[in-house]
Design goal:
The complex is a heterodimer of chains A (281) and B (297). Chain A has 14 helices and two strands, in the order αββααααααααααααα. By secondary structure, chain A is an all-alpha fold. By secondary structure, chain B is mostly helical. Chain B is built from 13 helices and no strands. The two termini of chain B are 23 Å apart. Classes of the chains: A mainly alpha (281), B mainly alpha (297). Chains A and B meet through helix 1, helix 3, helix 4, helix 5 and helix 6 of A and helix 1, helix 4, helix 5, helix 6 and helix 7 of B. Chain B: It is a multi-pass membrane protein.
Chain lengths: 281, 297
């Protein structure tokens, strides 16, 4: 009974991982037949400034996105887990970005951040009135912001669900002992949420290897190479410069990074132990 | 917004009228810092959304003149008409077809697989489950080149099936993992008593496992459908002709063509979001309940 799922998955995900490994040793323009070139692509990929820069940007994006999104969604999630009605209402609105497709979000921010008629420019707010997408230093952070806007709601939901499951008796006991709010947060809420933190962080870090659509539509990797993350570098190399061999080498780097990351997270976090007892990812 | 607590509410102190045996109620203490932070993020979320909606109702001239956050003085639906005239309905149907097809396929095969993993004992099944766990970490971007190759070889390039099949395949791992975790909680005794009545695997799957997994199934249906609906990379690479476009690609290409007409572009954004929004409004309870049941803990 597991066979149909396994076959479908093997055909479109497992086999491609093997094929992409093979293609990384060939020269192929996407149309004719791939021809074997040995280590050429790998030599190019590993010495190419563009690809190394893309890899660096991807790691930077991973760390910064995590550092930005985790505190926001943790605090928001714990906050809206409270029982007041207005908090439930807030949670409803927080959900809205999850309903908008990535392409649409990118289009929204592209116009919103436009230096001529975007929100900052038209309102005359000097702080916001910057060439967000045209300035290489700012563009990266504009992308960080748009990604946070898109994904914080999802992680807030995770933390909200996690916080709801913390037994109220823990807090009662703590406040009988005279523990203040901050202490309770630090000694009860955070430790109780540790698996949620791991789940959310896993999804965030592995997810940051897949940021493509948003960057593609929002900046196209520019200005210059300022937002050319690895998946985008792969796309441009393969599908715009028709160098599928080199793009395959980049893909292999991506797959390897993804697998290493999740193996590390599973190993160091006790994620696998949790998995057997609790529902969810 | 750093101080978030969950102190017992005064209402639950003994003698204050809380019914005995009721679970202690959640905190009701005010939390001004939290509220402030919560409101701040609300502004961050809603200002862009508000801006999109009001701008989509402006005329082109109005867009350049008016205060961007003011309510348009002469709201117009012309932008929406323009989007509809540019084939929106066709792309909407494409998106619906791809999403329905891919989600149905994912659910069918994943449910079978999850049932087999939970009820089966063979080593091959355990191995299969490990493969799916590992599969959670495969970034689909990294396999797009071979997928493109396979689709081209199979003569499926530039068809809606070309989008649906890989989309379904990549949804399988997470779907199976969530369903397995859920199916594990169905007590053995239920199966045993059905078996005592002479039921076979298919019967147990159909009349025991399936109805009991409803919450998990709702979760994964929503999650998978949202992902396919919003998918961008597969449609971008596996199709080419304008009549095979799905909504995210339409929004993207529309903004490429209408760069100077921002209100029309934003009308396209609004229209492309409306179907999901409608679904959300109708099924909000189930959606949130399902998401938290599936991803929480």
């Amino acid at each position: 009974m597991a066979l149909p799922a396994l076959l479908l998955f093997a055909l479109f995900a497992l086999a491609p991982m093997v094929i992409v490994g093979y293609l990384s040793f060939t020269r192929w323009d996407g149309l004719g037949t791939p021809s074997w070139t040995g280590l050429d692509n790998w030599r190019t990929a590993l010495t190419s400034d563009v690809t190394r820069h893309a890899l660096w940007l991807t790691l930077k994006m991973m760390v910064i996105s995590w550092a930005v999104q985790t505190p926001i969604s943790l605090l928001l999630g714990v906050f809206v887990a409270g029982k007041q009605r207005y908090r439930a209402l807030l949670a409803v609105f927080y959900f809205v970005p999850m309903l908008i497709s990535t392409a649409a979000i990118a289009v929204i921010f592209k116009n919103l951040l436009d230096p001529n008629f975007g929100l900052g420019a038209s309102l005359g707010l000097s702080l916001l009135d910057q060439d967000w997408l045209g300035d290489p230093d700012l563009a990266f952070y504009a992308v960080v912001f748009a990604i946070a806007w898109q994904f914080v709601p999802f992680h807030t939901l995770l933390y909200q669900a996690g916080a709801r499951q913390i037994p109220a008796s823990l807090y009662e006991a703590a406040s009988l002992d005279g523990a203040g709010r901050l202490k309770q947060f630090w000694h009860i809420t955070l430790p109780q949420l540790r698996y949620t933190v791991v789940t959310s962080s896993t999804l965030m870090t592995v997810g940051s290897l897949t940021y493509f659509d948003l960057v593609f539509v929002l900046t196209g990797g520019g200005p210059g190479y300022a937002t050319r993350l690895l998946p985008l570098d792969m796309y441009i190399t393969g599908f715009q410069s028709n160098d599928m061999g080199l793009a395959s080498a980049i893909s292999v780097v991506l797959v390897t990074a993804g697998l290493l990351l999740s193996l590390a997270l599973v190993r160091f976090s006790g994620f696998s132990r949790m998995r057997s007892q609790q529902a969810g990812v | 917004m750093t101080v978030l607590t969950r102190a017992p509410s005064p209402a639950t102190t003994p003698g204050s009228g809380a019914a005995p045996g009721r679970p202690p109620s959640r905190p009701r203490r005010t939390n001004p810092l939290g509220a402030l932070g919560g409101l701040l993020w609300l502004v961050v979320v809603l200002v862009p959304v508000y801006w999109v909606v009001v701008t989509s109702l402006r005329t082109r001239e109005g867009f350049f003149d008016a205060n961007p956050l003011a309510v348009p003085s002469d709201p117009t639906l012309d932008n929406y008409r323009q989007v509809l005239d540019n084939g929106f309905t066709h792309y909407l149907l494409n998106s619906l077809a791809v999403t329905a097809g891919a989600t149905a396929l994912t659910l069918a095969v994943s449910f079978l697989a999850a049932y087999a993993v939970v009820r089966g004992t063979s080593r091959a099944l355990r191995w299969t489950f490990s493969v799916f766990l590992l599969g959670l970490a495969i970034p689909l971007q990294a396999t797009i080149i071979p997928v493109y190759y396979l689709i081209a070889q199979a003569n499926m390039y530039d068809t809606l099936t070309a989008i649906a099949l890989p989309s379904a395949a990549f949804a399988i791992p997470l779907t199976v993992v969530i369903l397995v975790n859920f199916l594990r909680d169905i007590p053995d005794e239920l199966y045993e008593s059905m078996r005592a009545d002479g039921a076979g695997h298919w019967r147990m799957l159909w009349s025991l496992a399936l109805p009991l997994s409803r919450p998990a199934l709702i979760t994964v249906t929503i999650y998978d459908a949202l992902n396919v609906w919003n998918g961008f990379l597969f449609p971008l690479i596996l199709t080419q002709s304008p009549d095979k476009r799905v909504l995210p690609l339409f929004v993207w290409s529309f903004q490429g063509e209408f760069t100077v007409n921002v209100p029309a572009v934003l009308a396209a954004v609004v229209l492309s979001t409306l179907p999901i929004l409608a679904l959300y409004v109708i099924g909000r309870r189930q959606l949130i309940g399902g998401m938290t049941a599936g991803f929480g803990k």
